[in-house]
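Listing S7. Sequence submitted for prediction.
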Amino acid sequence: MAYPAKAWLAAFVFTQVFEIPVYVLALRHAVRTEHGEPPRTLSRQALAAFGASAITHPAVWYLIPLIPASFADPLDAWREYVVRAEVFAVVVEAVYFHWIGAFSLRRAFAWSLLANAVSAGLGQLSRAYLHFP
């Protein structure tokens, strides 16, 4: 299940459009409440937010599909891929935000789960109704 670069780019931009605002909101909140050492300027917050998906998205699209599915049924195999991809993204992005000092690990997981749920959920809705991305 390899995806062409054009399809990946559309999905990557879609993901960034929804995840960057969630992460920027989280980082701005962390600055106001003095949790962690998050980037303090809006541009640095947006860059940190962009970095999270920039790390995970290529692996989600190009590496995780290479892992053989446990199921023969295509729908079950697709569900397995989605679970693997989303768990990978949530964990790696949480560790990334903790590593850069933005959040405690617990807060990083909560924000990562929210950001990925928003982009994955809206992505599925958009694909079902608009056939995009």
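Caption to Listing S7: primary sequence and predicted structure tokens for the chain studied. The mean pLDDT is 95. Residues 60 and 85 are 5 Å apart (CA to CA).
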